[in-house]
Design brief:
alpha+beta, 18 strands, disordered C terminus, about 25% helix
Length: about 325
């Protein structure tokens, strides 16, 4: 019984590592062959890792982290995988794994019952509002929730992107991050703070007290932040990192820009394919709003929406991504 459970844990950790690599490869706009070339691996190796045919190695994790500039996200997945391996062979003569921070309390588990994102563009600024209905399906209270913000100005050109981000880093002042739960403001705590990558714990507490998410409970949380158009480009990607029952996205652009939207879906076992259903559009107070949704998305699936403004072809197409 225990051995089967540990083996499954290893498989899940390997899948999560592969999904993380695939996610950041797409963020950087690199084909598998190009990433393999930059990492000095055989051209087929990245494909084998992402498909699960090869298990991750420390060398691969280090090179992928450095090449994709993933803010330690890939390295964290590697440490998770090493921890899972150590559980299966506690007496094996291998170095003790580094301590890995657990996202939530032992015995806790989160299901996202509804995930709704709305991105509004004013012509100069993007404002993202995220609403999630979370359910605690575990046995322990949940006191915090992890969110990520990342940008990439020039996908496919990591050196240029890195230079741009060093010169124009994301700042907390411009993000103006806010978060609420049950009508209460949520405190937040920085986990990673880099020029183009932020990880933040949203805390179920404020100066007036604590309001944990107890086992069996569901609660809506909402958070929002802003980024200037010079850092946020014309695509928006959602990565499914927790079991999710329904996922929806709305993109709102000034109608005068004559926007058009399309999208792709990528899973653990398939390359990017067109979304199975087209975004639906409507007019709303001078804005053109595109809506798209899916039920029961697969874990580690990624949905990418892209757009262009047909009324302003001279506008430079920059790229960025947020979750």
């Amino acid at each position: 019984m225990d051995e089967r459970h540990d083996a499954l844990t290893i498989e899940r950790a390997a899948e999560a590592f592969a999904a993380e690599v695939a996610y950041w490869r797409e963020v950087r706009g690199l084909a598998k062959r190009e990433l393999a070339r930059r990492m000095a691996f055989d051209p087929s190796y990245v494909s084998h890792v992402e498909s699960g045919r090869h298990k991750p190695t420390e060398d691969f994790a280090r090179r992928a982290e450095e090449t994709l500039n993933a803010g330690k996200a890939i390295w964290k997945r590697w440490l998770d995988f090493e921890t899972a391996k150590a559980r299966t062979s506690p007496s094996a003569a291998v170095p003790a794994p580094r301590r890995v921070e657990q996202p939530y309390a032992t015995g806790s588990a989160i299901v996202v019952e509804h995930d709704a994102a709305r991105l509004d563009y004013t012509g100069r600024l993007y404002r993202l509002t995220m609403r999630r209905l979370l359910r605690n399906t575990g046995t322990e209270p949940i006191t915090r929730y992890l969110i990520r913000i990342s940008v990439d100005r020039y996908p496919g050109e990591p050196e240029r992107s890195n230079a741009h981000c060093r010169e124009h880093p994301l700042t907390w002042g411009e993000l103006a991050l806010t978060a609420t739960c049950r009508g209460e403001a949520m405190r937040w705590q920085t986990k990673h703070d880099r020029d183009a990558f932020k990880e933040v714990w949203l805390l179920f507490e404020n100066e007036r007290g604590r309001f944990p998410l107890y086992p069996g409970e569901s609660v809506w949380i909402e958070y929002a932040y802003s980024v200037g158009e010079e850092k946020w480009g014309r695509w928006f990607q959602r990565a499914v990192r927790l079991p999710t029952e329904h996922l929806g996205v709305e993109l709102a652009f000034p109608a005068e820009l004559d926007p058009t939207v399309w999208g792709t879906e990528t899973s653990m076992t398939a390359e990017a394919t067109p979304l199975r259903t087209a975004p639906v559009q409507r007019e709303e107070s001078g804005m053109r709003v595109f809506s798209w949704s899916t039920s029961a998305p697969a874990l580690h699936a990624r949905y990418r929406l892209e757009w262009r403004f047909r009324a302003s072809p001279e506008h430079e197409t920059n790229q960025g991504e947020f979750r």
